[in-house]
Specification:
The chain has 344 residues and is mainly alpha-helical. 41% of the residues are buried. The two termini are 43 Å apart. Helix content is 71%, strand content 0%. It has 14 helices and no strands. The longest helix is centred in the last third of the chain and has 29 residues, at 299-327. The model is unreliable at 7-17 (pLDDT under 50). The protein has one domain: ABC transporter involved in vitamin B12 uptake, BtuC (Orthogonal Bundle), CATH 1.10.3470. Helix 12 (253-263) packs across helix 13 (275-294).
């Protein structure tokens, strides 16, 4: 809307453009064009299929972590729960269990691991950063206790194909199809339900939320349980994709997941963020990584890029919001009322 300060409305349009979600879409377009120039097959169906496979587990774990961070907490144990899930799959398979029983079992184990995090945070009042750094090591250690340093790789192809095959008639990997369904469910939960509004309220001001009737501890516990359960599911996806159950599966993935969530515009201090921004950030990170791999960039350089993006994911959204606020046009002051007519 045009105002006296900005009669053409250009500042308002620029402020809208500088919204971080809009900037992410533009960055995605830049990566797509740049990648296509550097490697003609970058936007080909085959390469997009492998890009989807590469980000599948990161994308899944980013969904519940988005809600956890919006609530002002963090969960750094997600990749270790993935590894524990994978190790448990291998152990139970060797013990003669059917995969139809193993898969729901490891999701439940992931949920229990998340519940342990949540209880330590909500019942003992411990900071989630310290708790999940501890359980990051604990759950990874348990994975090695369960399976040791060996690998189990004799899973039937009728199952492993779901980790490496596209949905028939498309170039969409099965893990990304699963992610799309869960992303819709999590988006509805966060943005269209009273529970989602409570999550934002907790992140903005926990005390105010509590005195407004929000059951803060219960909500946070639910979020940690969701984070653990989806991490267990990501362990299944990872194991099927590589057709190998190992205790060290997913090591270090927690940094990529946190980078995606923060790059998506979710405030590290809680109370702000959108799931749409996180979805865009996941594919932005995946596109950058894929373009660098296609151009034979070393793994060490990829780690450097991931670190820089993690730093930028904290700085850039805040800077974008600050600039957008500065450029947002102010409403014109109300016109002065007409002077009263002179008395007779």
């Amino acid at each position: 809307m045009a105002t006296e300060r900005d009669p053409t409305g250009r500042l308002g349009a620029l402020a809208a453009l500088l919204r971080w979600e809009s900037a992410l879409v533009l960055l995605l377009a830049v990566v797509a064009v740049t990648g296509r120039i550097a490697e003609p097959g970058f936007l080909g169906g085959s390469n997009l299929f492998y890009l989807g496979l590469d980000v599948g587990e990161i994308a899944l774990m980013a969904l519940p972590l988005t809600l956890v961070i919006v609530a002002g907490e963090i969960d750094l144990s997600i990749a270790s729960i993935l590894g524990l899930s994978s190790a448990l799959i291998g152990h139970l398979w060797n013990a003669g269990w059917a995969l139809e029983v193993i898969f729901p079992t490891v999701v439940v184990v992931g949920a229990v691991a998340g519940a342990c995090n949540g209880l330590l945070v909500t019942r003992l009042g411990l900071p989630s950063l310290a708790v999940t750094i501890g359980t990051l090591a604990l759950y990874r250690g348990l994975a090695f206790v369960v399976l040791g340093d060996k690998a189990v790789a004799d899973f039937p192809a009728t199952y492993t194909r779901y980790g490496i095959s596209p949905v028939p008639g498309t170039h969409i990997p099965y893990p990304i199809a699963l992610y799309a369904v869960l992303a819709v469910l999590f988006a509805v939960l966060l943005h269209a339900t009273p529970f989602g509004r409570a999550v934002f309220a907790i992140g903005a001001n926990q005390e105010t939320a509590f005195f407004s009737g929000v059951r803060v501890k219960r909500a946070k516990l639910i979020l940690f349980v969701l984070s653990g359960a989806v991490s267990g599911l990501a362990g299944i996806v990872y194991t099927l994709r590589f057709a190998s159950a190992r205790a060290d599966n997913g090591t270090g993935l927690e940094l990529a997941v946190v980078a995606a969530v923060l790059l998506g515009g979710v405030s590290i201090f809680g109370g702000r963020g959108t799931l749409g921004g996180v979805v865009a950030a996941v594919f932005l990170l995946g596109g950058v990584r894929n373009a660098l791999i296609l151009n034979d960039v070393s793994n060490d350089t990829l780690n450097v890029v991931t670190g820089l993006l993690l730093i930028g994911s904290v700085v850039a959204p805040s800077a974008s919001r600050a600039v957008a606020r500065a450029l947002r046009p102010r409403r014109a002051p109300p016109e002065a009322s007409a002077k009263p007519a002179a008395g007779r």
